[in-house]
Amino acid sequence: MRAFFESLSHLYKFTFIFLYLVLVEVVLQIRSVPQSLRRSCKQSSFTREYLARIEKNSSTFMFRKKIRPDLNECAICLLKLEEGDRLREIQCKHVFHKDCLGSWLQHHLATCPLCRGLVLPEEEMIELYRLQAEQEQVNSSNEHSRWLPALLGGNLHGLY
Prior knowledge:
Layout: H1 2-57, E1 59-62, E2 86-89, E3 95-97, H2 98-107, H3 122-151
Antiparallel strand pairs: 1-2, 2-3
Helix pairs in contact: 1-3
Pfam families: zf-RING_2 (PF13639)
Transmembrane segments: 12-30
Protein name: Zinc finger, RING-type
């Protein structure tokens, strides 16, 4: 009978440890949601910087059929160009609706939808990628510094 109660005691300890680890994992998962949101905000600041550089390196104009009779439709949305549409001409000389190109560039970083040529000069893209990598490294480092001590036996105060 004594062996039975010792087994239950060990089972109780293992159950407690298991539940503690599950609790820590749940806390980490809950904490990762705000971290992910912060990361996405930082990515959008990267995207804003990226789009600002595109704005600086490309021209925007209102479509006039008399001035640009060679243009018929936006290759992104496939809509016929109308008088007064806001268009953007990029480095490779392809032209798109300004908003369509902005959406494209947020999802397909740095390439023309038609020729896949770089939208920004290569040096600027390298600088942007370097800045993005540094920011991600800082974010990752900050995130790990918060939960690592708790996993190594410290307290959970930093997690709440």
